Amino acid sequence: MSSSDTPSRDGEADRRHVRVLIVGSGLSGLGTAIRLGQRGITDYVVVERGPDVGGTWRDNTYPGAGCDVPSHLYSYSFAPNPDWSRSFSPQPEIEQYLRTVADRYGVREKHLFDCAMTGARWNATEGRWYVDTSRAAFTADFVVSAAGVLAEPKLPDIKGISSFEGKIFHSARWDHDTTLTGKKVAVIGTGSSAVQIVPSIAPEVEHLDVYQRTATWVMPQLARPYLAPERFAFKHFPWLQRLIRALIYIAREAFVVTQVKYPRTGLILEAVGRVKMWLEIRDPQLRRKVLPEHRIGCKRMLVSNKFYGALDRDNVDLVTDGIAEVRAGSIVSEDGTEREVDAIVLATGFHVADSPTFNLYTGRAGRTVSEAAEAEGYQMYKGTTVAEFPNMFFLLGANSGLNYTSLIYIIESQINYIIDALDTMRQRELQSFEVKADAQTEYNRALQPKMARTVWANGGCTSWFLDNHGNNSALWPDFSFKYRRMVRTFDLDAYDTVPRAR
């Protein structure tokens, strides 16, 4: 689609109509586009605010960026990649994989890049969505929100941070024009991004202060390069790669036992974490600082073979006192210590349950998704549809996330649900669907007993899994194969429908 094909937004009559409009082209949006094409649905468009496909793997280019899920499991089931160089893939390889898949399945022509969605509203009279973007205006029978859960950086609210005169940037918006060599640098945060950034920049900076709010369990990563004979076997014997993928999947599902079913068994993993800590950190005081006070799995487990060693370097300090304020060239911690700094890296995570994109969708009742969440809490039906928002699907919505295995498994499960919904709507000659409020409420009520016994609820921590109401609205509290079974078919009985006008 070229810019000359882009309709004007001056008049409503100039809007281009599509059957399906997909917002975002990361793993979720790209996978949806491919599956629509495979199903013979070609009347769709993908609006993507970035210059290419890839989503979080296009945006997160910080030093050391990579995946903490094994490579063979971190790919679409319909597009295995025999060319992974390592057992855990670095960011450039994942980004290239997604670009290659987009080209292989010929979906680029359905994309409108550098195109941010600015608003979408449901028109009940016409039974369709009116969608505005920075480049075009659309109407759509169905909207798929595939903006992603790691799309909007979360910036800390720290006194004086706007007055800092050095370089400051979020890990997901890495400033590659800034060199950190020989500089005094501060990294705020010790989550998944930080454990990759800190070992990557520690050897080159003059001094590194790492600000830790809460210690988190760090587990060993069984990472290694794949040998040429292995890659040859993956390419010429695809069944071997499928077998390895299946074995990895089964092994990862075992974490459900330690986090959901029988959290006390997590003590075994904690023992592994303690031994790792003892072997890799010489300083007893530093060991005490990094020893978590919560049960393993309560916060997302981190995997790294280099993080503890980096913290133990002479030019690295781990600061566990909170930050009182940021000044023009320094950070002051709550104990009054002032530390000079030339650059600040914010490894402070993302808006997950409170994604700013939720302010852009206005449903049947005139409320946005955010406004509905403020009133009733962040709830969805099967993590995919929401009452008051007809003909709309969310990918990786409420309580569909995983913190122990590949999210691609959930994404593909939800795409199956979407495809079956579209087929059902066509076969039944229906114009619109909307999940019943009672069905949504009952579904979420049934989740709570499962959530109550998990380590996320009883592990003694607070985490990004929790929304503003204190509810764990991020994670699925069971085996992932049970989620897939649940969304295998579109359950029309849970929805109010409107027939298509004849």
TrEMBL record:
Pfam families: FMO-like (PF00743)
EC numbers, comma separated: 1.14.13.-
Gene Ontology MF, one: monooxygenase activity
Coiled-coil stretches noted in the UniProt entry, renumbered to this chain: none
Keywords: FAD, Flavoprotein, Monooxygenase, Oxidoreductase
Gene3D superfamilies named among the record's database cross-references: FAD/NAD(P)-binding domain (3.50.50.60)
InterPro entries reported for this sequence: FAD-bind_Monooxygenase_sf, FAD/NAD-bd_sf, Flavin_mOase-like
Domain of life the protein comes from: Bacteria
UniProt family annotation: Belongs to the FAD-binding monooxygenase family.
PANTHER family (alphabetical): FAD_NAD(P)-BINDING DOMAIN-CONTAINING PROTEIN-RELATED, L-ORNITHINE N(5)-MONOOXYGENASE-RELATED
Protein name per the record: Flavin-containing monooxygenase
